[in-house]
Amino acid sequence: MAARLVRGRPRGLGHSTCAFLGHLAARCEVVPETAKLLARRVPGHAVCVPEVIAVSDAQRNGREIPQDSYDAVVIGGGAAGLSAALVLGRVCRKVAVVDAGEPRNAPVAHMQGFLSRDGMPPAALLEVGRAEVAQYGVDFIAGKVEQVDRGEAAGFAVHLAGGPVLHARHVVLASGLRDELPDIPGLRERWSRDVLHCPYCHGYEVRGRAFAVLGTHPVSVNQALLVRQLSDDVVYVPGDRPLTDDERERLTARGVRIAAEGSIKRVVSADDQVRGVELEDGAVVPCEVVFVFPQMVPNDGVLDGLGCDRNPAGFLTTDDAGRTSVPGIWAVGNADDPRALVISAAGKGAAAAFALNHDLVDAEVAQAVAERRGS
């Protein structure tokens, strides 16, 4: 179900949420899960929001979506996408954000490394961000983009699941990436809790505990060397990837123990806590935290028909501002850089928006000059 605020001033909510709902009231816009959002904001307390009405998914999907052209359609409503929309909205560009509501960091309780927001729940950051962006007339559309192709006249056609098509002069891909874990039983169940991959995102919270680093990826050795400074108890589990003499020497010199080689059978957990890594021979390597490097796959299949260039890692190639090889198509955040933290993803979104607006201005000036000369 979704909810729509038809009219009235909400009471008992924070300023940002009130601003967000006030914007919805003015536009009669529909946002999924709004009712649940309100309940979370003030648990156990009465919340007065006049005339919030439930709307079924069928009704919501059947609503009229603007069909006229946007200056930019942003695909993805995370930190990168919202930052791009914020900058463009503030210079009075017509912008739509299409968000499927599937952020990469959804399993994480808190995000780290974001100045002034360190430790904030990711969902809370997005809630505040949407409220800020909404002040500038940006359209929010809940849904998935199925395909982006070239428009019949100019620009691009953004096809949403269910049939609606949005037209845009530029498209900003901010849909992030997905983490594909090795097929080892017990990993997925503990992912983002005590099965981790990023020392910058999660390392401080598990410092001093017993680490096991799984050798399932070409960068796993470097991962073990990196997390060693967080704990004096780090063991590298090679699995089926034999170590070179150089790798073995570096790990040993860094104070990382090396477990016996052999296939990894499963991650052992008990009492809601990782307890060890079991090998095929039945031996268990004790640990409290597992570090594993996932395969990072960009969520950029919607652009496949446009022929954007890619780098050897499979990510879209971009310039410093986020321009891809196809003019008018931009990629920001983890869709462009798998290493980007939340704060750097936000910065990339803002930087792309600056450059995108300048490109729009250049095109508009060129058109105005041509029209003037032709008159």
From TrEMBL:
Keywords annotated in UniProt: Flavoprotein, Oxidoreductase
Domain called FAD/NAD(P)-binding: residue spans: 70-335
InterPro entries reported for this sequence: FAD/NAD-bd_sf (IPR036188), FAD/NAD-binding_dom (IPR023753), Ferredoxin-NADP_redctase_2 (IPR050097)
GO molecular function: thioredoxin-disulfide reductase (NADPH) activity
Keyword presence, Oxidoreductase: yes
Pfam families for this protein: Pyr_redox_2 (PF07992)
Coiled-coil positions: none
Reactions listed under catalytic activity: [thioredoxin]-dithiol + NADP(+) = [thioredoxin]-disulfide + NADPH + H(+)
The UniProt record lists the keyword Oxidoreductase: yes
Protein name, UniProt field: NAD(P)/FAD-dependent oxidoreductase
Organism: Streptomyces coryli
